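Technical annex, item 7. During the second reporting period the consortium partners agreed on a shared format for inverse folding records so that results from different sites could be compared directly. Each record opens with the tokenized structure and is followed by the designed sequence. A conforming record, contributed by the partner at site C, is shown below for reference.
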């Protein structure tokens, strides 16, 4: 077990910051509590469970297993301590209030591009319920217990997931397109995780070059794994209506209109979206909730 104290240059709400890292309430690899978050992950040194706890004005990070030391080296970025808001000072009255009240919901940079992509790909073109169920089943079937305490499961080893037959994914409700993308992502895990060391533009280009990874999937991944505060998930079923409703009072279900409204905040557009989502602002719903319709890159 290794322990490290992290000083914070700004306020950090741990559960709020990890709202995108944790994919649903029943995520088997991430658990959040009032002032504590747990995560089971893998890095180049091996598997590791991490525990972050808010202590005074800082955070205490604890890690177990072969990947503990490397994980603690990158721990500040994981919890948003290295998040650069670029002097974000919104003039819009609602955004100014949200930034004042929820500014401690920072942008994390987990560095776990492969693991994030697995979860996000499972969310393509299906309902939230179907995506969360598939994620749990995939983790139970091909994940493994993380070393140390916490009771979490590690996401599937990429070498294992890359060789899973299509039928085994099909019986879990994962159709051919998503299954193929999952296995492709797993086979490219090392190259994908290396993207965190590149500048964001190049990382985006390489991420989008993988067949099956469209702008929605890339943005959802970049916002969490690469710490990109400007990532905008275009192609989402409800996000344009929610954002335009928050910023103008009128819900418009159109990506171009959403992008126009977000343009004054270029460089921090993902942060604006995070604030709106964290505040629970939703446009009036007129139809059943479906998952994002990812715009395919291939």
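Designed sequence (site C submission):
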């Amino acid at each position: 077990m290794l322990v490290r104290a992290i000083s914070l240059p700004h306020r950090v709400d741990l559960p709020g910051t990890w709202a995108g890292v944790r994919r649903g309430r029943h995520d088997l690899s991430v658990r959040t509590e009032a002032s504590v978050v747990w995560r089971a992950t893998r890095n180049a040194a091996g598997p590791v469970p991490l525990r972050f706890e808010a202590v005074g004005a800082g955070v205490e990070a604890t890690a177990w297993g072969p990947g503990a030391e490397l994980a603690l080296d990158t721990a500040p970025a994981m919890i948003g301590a290295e998040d650069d808001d670029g002097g974000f000072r919104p003039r819009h009255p609602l955004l100014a209030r949200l930034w004042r009240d929820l500014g401690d919901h920072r942008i994390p940079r987990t560095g776990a591009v492969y693991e994030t992509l697995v979860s996000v790909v499972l969310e393509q073109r299906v309902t939230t319920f179907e995506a969360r169920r598939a994620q749990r089943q995939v983790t139970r079937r091909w994940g493994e217990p993380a070393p140390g305490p916490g009771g979490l499961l590690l996401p599937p080893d990429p070498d294992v997931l890359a060789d899973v037959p299509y039928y085994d994914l099909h019986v879990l409700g994962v159709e051919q397109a998503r299954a193929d993308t999952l296995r492709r992502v797993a086979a490219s895990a090392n190259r994908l995780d290396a993207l965190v060391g590149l500048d964001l533009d190049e990382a985006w280009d390489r991420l989008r070059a993988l067949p099956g990874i469209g702008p929605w999937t890339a943005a959802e991944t970049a916002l969490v794994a690469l710490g990109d505060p400007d990532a905008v998930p275009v192609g989402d079923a409800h996000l344009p209506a929610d954002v335009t409703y928050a910023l103008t009072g009128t819900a418009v279900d159109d990506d171009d209109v959403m992008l126009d409204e977000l343009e004054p905040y270029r460089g921090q557009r993902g942060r604006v979206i995070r604030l709106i989502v964290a505040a629970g602002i939703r446009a009036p719903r007129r139809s059943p909730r479906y998952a994002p319709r990812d715009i395919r890159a291939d």
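The mean pLDDT is 94. The domain at 2-85 is CATH 2.20.25 (N-terminal domain of TfIIb). All partners now use this format for quarterly exchanges.
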